[in-house]
Design a protein that fits this description.
heterodimer, A: Pyruvate-ferredoxin Oxidoreductase, domain 3, six-stranded mixed beta sheet, 23 strands, B: Rossmann fold, eight-stranded mixed beta sheet, about 20% strand, binds thiamine diphosphate, binds iron/sulfur cluster, binds magnesium ion
């Protein structure tokens, strides 16, 4: 890649945000940049920010779609706070995203649509290009529409279709600017539009033209190089959270020798789980798109009852509908995995925005004493391990397991160090063997260690029995309203879930197990918390962080760990739900740091908050 | 195991050690008896049979059958049973439900089971009342009914479970009566023989909260004159001497025929492609016309579970992929 006489500058990281109309192909553009960058060996983290509406009127603020990515020569934990480069495809995108661009950051602005009407749609009274709004940024104005039309003058496509290639023109500019190899994108485009050679040719021509434009015109003075990051050796794949979760479930089911059955009803941001698993029929995966969330979970319970691994996937509103059936699974003591890809609530809330406010719902949102195991994925790649762990626990303990993810993990992506499938642990599952004639089967006879009951598949001789939601006598499973028995069964179901903690490894901490401040986290804030903690450690502060994958039961060593610090701070995207649970269980003054604006935490905000905590503790911070 | 060497079954083989707890005189007893009779006749093996119910007096049924049984939650039995049947089509899966359970809270699952034609045999005990919760009106209670929750009589119109089933695309739709044991047994056997969703609405007397709901046409003295037994290939005749008939006019409106017109009685075809005649029978006035019992509709149609399993088998035959290949898919790269 020749850069001629232009400047080439080395950076150790860059944050780029593509923003445009939903029809501008920003997600695809971001995705291409991500793949290329992953293949070039950088560490990378992404954050797609979808508009609320599928098709908001073109050029309006609600129609703006964005994709942020951060890539680096070192290990990173978040897609970055403020972007170094903002690509704004129209005035609306500029309006929504300019305020986040770093001071002195690069703004690549498409000037094609700055008519009075365009400005009005974006709610600009004056043209921001001339009223000083852009001062303080390194603005590069390019009429992407006109340049793309020029580049495609010989294309047989009509004007509109040509114009739609302008995102590829922008991508070409960015590829030049960041010294990226266009080859992987050339391959991907050829695959994506393979059946339409004219489209392939136009997209590639636009990208090459953008690249050449940046290389030859005066406006672009500097190209940047971000060398590869030192990554652990192995084979990598860029993965999104929903994808990784599906793969973890499929791997778990295979290691357990079970057929996977998914009952689901479409809902943002969980639908991709249904989509993806429905493509795994060749792995024996059964997917059932039910008439509603209640049917979805009930069918999954039915599948587990008949000896499959029953799974149901949804988001918060769907959990509300599933609660009664989840209680049935608690009572029937059957394996069941319930996936909640959380979004901003309450009610329909903001479906495309992220939040972690369903924790108390899945913990306590059922009638009666109805304990379930609750796990949380914390990064896209981590979702694989959490899916696998959910299969292990559900089958070992014959109990429902809730997996919490969120929109940020679901749609974000990162390089995933692929596990060796042969090295994944087996998940032993033993169905109850056929019964002897004349011996009555005891459906609630328990394994003394785990308290799990036997898994008796209908169709097996000698095991006929009845189960249901009514309270039952332990061992025999017969309906029973005896006071002592009910007390015993409530206690037993709780103890069974508590027993899961015995399997858990000690908590890992970033930093020593003693100090001034422990930052605890669960779920998607992990990256922002890690980044903030590491920066403060570099400043010499005694701060450590730890992350909880198991939220119910909590790890046995959590109480001790918290005692080793003067303060425990818990950032979460809700009003302090886990903080409340920990305070009540451990009587420790866990301080909640809450954010509920539909956006992920920024690591700098957490850092700022922690600095305040240190100030309160009277610790001097050297700047 | 072939049909020949399957153990012969007797009614008593299906009885459990649990005390039956319905009110004395409840119609559910005779239904239990008829189902046990039918199962014995069909030689159903205990371990191959699963009975799934919702909540209600009727839904206590599984506890009294020595098969696999799952007493689930209110209205959801068809959904849960769909999961069972879809994941193991070899099982013989029955759903027992009530008029509140299936028509009210579980209406959605009831219609969608039929839309998909899942191989479930649904026995819907219709007593036109909520029994378990002690006597509120149900979606099948007649308009104006005075109950605990409708002291001035209901304003709601009822719907016909048969018409609902036909409308939802039900492929086997029948009606039986608790006290007509042999006929009911036959309905259960015929439902069992059907490959897709089979619905049998069973008129059931709740002698505590809705006693005599069906007296007007099921009592011995009036039965001949008031019940119309649907028989495939036979004209729609009723009356002790079969001297009355039911015919349809050009608009499929039912009308009574007798005497010289008896020959105009409609010849019943339960396999008819059009649901119109069955729909006409299901919706005609109970007071003006005889009440039909028997099979309203029976159509062959591929089942949901077969379609599902066929897709999986075809996908497996077309593509074999190891777990490694599944994980190591897409763009992958090596470091170090
Ligand atoms: C979610 C829920 N809502 C309400 C109830 C209370 N409930 C139990 S059975 C029933 C009605 C049963 O009527 P039906 O299905 O006709 O059965 P029957 O008792 O008449 O046989 C109701 C309302 C319940 N168990 N669960
Ligand atoms: S309340 Fe009615 S339906 Fe329920 S058991 Fe008693 S008689 Fe039967
Ligand atoms: Mg009823």
């Amino acid at each position: 890649m020749a850069v001629h006489d232009k400047h080439l500058q080395d950076l150790d990281q860059a944050v780029i945000r593509f923003a445009g109309d939903s029809g501008d192909g920003m997600q695809l553009t971001g995705d291409q940049f991500t793949r290329t960058t992953a293949l070039m060996g950088n560490d990378i983290a992404t954050f797609p920010d979808f508009p609320a509406e599928i098709r908001a009127p073109a050029g309006t603020l609600p129609g703006v779609s964005a994709f942020q990515l951060r890539f680096s020569s070192f290990d990173i934990h978040t897609p970055g706070d403020a972007p170094d480069v903002l690509v704004a495809m129209n005035p609306a995108a500029l309006k929504v995203h300019l305020k986040e661009l770093k001071r002195d950051g690069i703004l690549l602005l498409n000037t094609a649509s700055f008519s009075a009407l365009d400005l009005k749609k974006a709610k600009y009274d004056k043209d921001p290009r001339t009223d000083g709004s852009l001062s303080g940024y390194r603005t590069i104005e390019v009429d992407l529409e006109a340049r793309t039309q020029e580049a495609l003058a010989n294309s047989p496509l009509d004007n509109r279709a040509r114009g739609r290639c302008k995102n590829m023109y922008a991508l070409g500019i960015l590829y030049w600017m960041f010294h990226r190899d266009p080859a992987p994108t050339e391959k991907a485009i050829a695959q994506k539009f393979g059946k339409k050679p004219d489209l392939v040719a136009a997209n590639l021509a636009a990208m090459r033209a953008g690249f050449a434009y940046a290389e030859t015109t005066e406006v672009f003075q500097t190209a940047y190089r971000v060398p590869p990051a030192p990554m652990k050796p192995g084979t990598y794949r860029n993965i999104m959270g929903n994808q990784a979760l599906c793969l973890g479930l499929v791997a778990g089911a295979q290691k357990a020798g079970l057929q996977l059955f998914l009952g689901s009803y479409p809902i943002t941001p969980a639908s991709d789980i249904l989509h993806q698993l429905s493509g795994y029929k060749h792995h024996g995966v059964v997917t059932f798109q039910a008439e509603d969330e209640i049917a979805a979970v009930c069918a999954a319970i039915g599948a587990s009852y008949s000896g499959c691994l029953g799974i149901t996937s949804t988001s918060g509103p769907g959990i509300a509908l599933k609660s009664e059936a989840m209680g049935l699974a608690v009572m029937a003591e059957l394996p069941l995995i319930v996936i909640d890809v959380q979004r901003a609530g309450p009610s329909t809330g903001m479906p495309t925005k992220t939040q972690q406010a369903d924790l108390l719902q899945v913990m306590y949102g059922r009638n009666g004493e109805s304990p379930v195991c609750v796990l949380a994925a914390s990064t896209p790649a981590d979702a694989f391990e959490v899916g696998f762990e959910a299969v292990r626990i559900a089958t070992k303990y014959m109990a429902p397991v809730v997996v919490l993810s969120d929109g940020y993990i679901a749609n974000g992506s990162e390089p995933w160090l692929l596990p060796d499938p042969d090295a994944l642990p087996a998940i032993p599952v033993a169905f109850a063997p056929a019964g002897e004639p004349g011996v009555k089967f005891m459906p609630y006879a328990r394994d003394p260690a785990t308290l799990a009951r036997p898994w008796a598949r209908p169709g097996t001789k000698g095991l006929v029995h009845r189960i249901g939601g009514l309270e039952k006598a332990d061992v025999t499973g017969n309906i029973c309203y005896e006071p002592d028995n009910h007390q015993h069964m409530v206690d037993t179901r709780a103890q069974k879930i508590a027993n899961i903690a015995a399997d858990l490894p000690p908590l890992q901490t970033f930093g020593p197990r003693h100090g001034d401040v422990l930052v605890l986290g669960w779920g998607s804030p992990r990256g922002a918390i890690t980044a903030a903690t590491l920066r403060l450690q570099q400043k010499g502060l005694q701060v450590s962080c730890a992350f909880l994958r198991h939220l119910n039961p909590l790890p046995n060593d959590l109480g001790e760990l918290m005692k080793g610090f003067r303060r425990v701070v818990l950032p979460e995207l809700n009003k302090g739900q886990l903080a409340m649970m920990l305070r009540s269980k451990y009587l420790v003054d866990v301080q909640s740091h809450s954010q509920v604006n539909g956006q992920p935490f920024k690591s700098h905000d957490i850092e700022r908050h922690l600095l305040k905590v240190f100030a309160e503790l009277g610790v001097e911070v050297s700047q | 195991m072939t049909a020949v060497d399957r153990p012969v079954m007797q009614k008593k083989d299906y009885k459990t050690d649990q005390e039956v707890r319905w009110c004395p005189g409840c119609g559910d007893y005779s239904i239990l008896n008829a189902v046990q009779g039918a199962f014995a006749k069909l030689g159903k093996q205990l371990h191959e049979t699963v009975i799934i119910s919702g909540i209600g007096c009727s839904s206590r049924f599984p506890y009294y059958m020595e098969t696999y049984g799952f007493h689930t939650i209110h209205g959801r039995a068809p959904a849960l049973a769909t999961g069972v049947k879809a994941s193991n089509p070899a099982l013989d899966v029955w759903v027992v439900t009530g008029d509140g359970d299936a028509m009210s809270i579980g209406g959605n699952h009831f219609i969608h089971a039929m839309r998909r034609n899942v191989g479930l045999k649904i026995l819907m005990f219709n007593n036109r009342i909520y029994g378990l919760t002690k006597g509120q009106f149900s979606p099948t209670s007649e308009q104006g009914k005075v109950t605990k929750s409708s002291p001035l009589g209901t304003v709601d119109y009822p719907f016909s479970p048969i018409a609902l089933s036909l409308g939802a695309g039900g492929t086997f739709v029948a009606r039986g009566v608790d006290i007509l044991g042999p006929h009911l047994e036959d309905m259960v056997c015929r439902a069992s023989a059907h490959a897709g969703t089979a619905v049998v609405e069973i008129y059931q007397n709740c002698n505590i909260f809705n006693d005599g709901a069906y007296k007007g046409f099921t009592d011995k003295e009036v039965r001949d004159a008031r019940l119309l037994f649907l028989q495939h290939g036979q004209p729609l005749l009723f009356g002790a001497n079969k001297d009355q008939g039911l015919a349809f006019d050009a608009n499929f409106r039912p009308c009574l025929v007798s005497g010289g017109d008896l020959g105009k009685a409609y010849v019943w075809d339960e396999t008819a492609e059009s649901p119109a005649p069955a729909m006409a029978l299901a919706t005609m006035s109970e007071s003006e016309f005889p009440v039909p019992v028997g099979v309203f509709r029976r159509r062959d149609k591929p089942t949901f579970e077969d379609g599902l399993q066929a897709q999986i088998a075809a996908a497996k035959a077309k593509k074999q992929e190891s777990l490694r290949d599944l994980l190591y898919a897409g763009e992958i790269w090596d470091v170090g």
